[in-house]
Amino acid sequence: QVQLVESGGGSVQAGGSLRLSCAASGYTYSSSCMAWFRQAPGKEREGVAAMDTRRGSTTYTDSAKGRFTLSQDTAKNTVYLQMNSLKPEDTAMYYCAADPVRCMTLSPYNYNYWGQGTQVTVSS
After folding, report:
1. Which residues contact 42 (CB under 8 A, 6 or more apart)?
2. How many angstroms separate the Cα of 93 from the Cα of each of 12, 21, 55, 96?
3. What is the distance between the alpha carbons of residues 7 and 122, in angstroms, rounded to a whole number?
4. Are 35 and 16 in contact (CB under 8 A)?
5. Going by DSSP bridges, is the β-strand pair 118-123/10-13 parallel, antiparallel, or unpaired?
6. pLDDT at position 84
7. Mean pLDDT of successive 10-residue segments in the chain (124 residues)?
8. Are 88 and 74 in contact (CB under 8 A)?
């Protein structure tokens, strides 16, 4: 089992930045594969970025490439999503997800563990 706690959401104007954090606790092997998803009202949950924390490799959805960056602090078992050049269409609830074996995938069906989410609102 692993517990995930997100933080760092908030309200910003278009063009601004936010850094989301996802702290994992418990059986950290279960968080070897980490990802961020987002869900706007009335829309399906969308994969934003994913990381294999053992290798440090990352993948991003097209809309995040060049604007969002994943990083990690292994000592803190924390993964960060730095979001720059934010747009109103980035407004959503952002969720952290983890899985012990299914890495580098942006499908929500591949992740067993989820955080409660943190709201990101970008105004124009």
Report:
1. none
2. 14, 13, 27, 10
3. 16
4. no
5. parallel
6. 98
7. 95 98 85 94 97 95 97 94 98 96 93 96 97
8. no
